[in-house]
């Protein structure tokens, strides 16, 4: 068991969730409530990581942010560090790849909030911020929780984009999925099996708990409305 790779994966997943979920709440709410020119294209763009192979996204990030690109050179001059083959680059790549896993459940949850509830809150003099914090977020919490678990689990098992963007640097970019690949390459199937089982058990447990909690929260919300 490569504990260093596991810890790095958990760290990457946690930071990605902390960065992405607040942005996904804002994006999901905007897409749920507002109509604007090009909305269909924006929604399509958000869904692109679901249909593109992760290696393709990793390739474009590698080329676009590498030392040979003007953007990569500017970032290196500004921060004194390249994003490519660095943990910060993995965070950026993970955020981009997981945008649909975060935005879509939250957008659907906001779309399920009745308009009359929001209108009643506005008539009571509540500001948009108060409506979001005190009315909408408690109602869309199951969607936010689903997005959080999906993103965390997906980042934990990412391989293609991580390998393309970060390579295989122990303690810096070597995640547990890459450790599994290395173990298989070295014919160490026992270690690969243990690490794979850890990811499998985590994914099943997390999704089961999320489903159960979402149903419970949905049931309580329905009971409160009655």
Note down, in words, how this protein is organized:
There is one protein chain. The chain has 226 residues and is mainly α. The chain has one domain (3-224): MetI-like fold. It is built from eleven helices and no strands. Helix 7 crosses helix 8 (128-156). The N and C termini lie far apart (51 Å). 31% of the residues are buried. The mean pLDDT is 86. Keywords: Cell inner membrane, Cell membrane, Membrane, Molybdenum, Transmembrane, Transmembrane helix, Transport. Part of the binding-protein-dependent transport system for molybdenum; probably responsible for the translocation of the substrate across the membrane. It comes from Shewanella glacialipiscicola.
Offer a quick outline of the entry.
The protein has 226 residues and is an all-alpha fold. The protein has helices at 3-33, 39-51, 54-65, 70-79, 87-97, 99-111, 115-123, 128-156, 160-166, 176-185, 189-225. The protein has one domain (3-224): MetI-like fold (Orthogonal Bundle), CATH 1.10.3720.10.
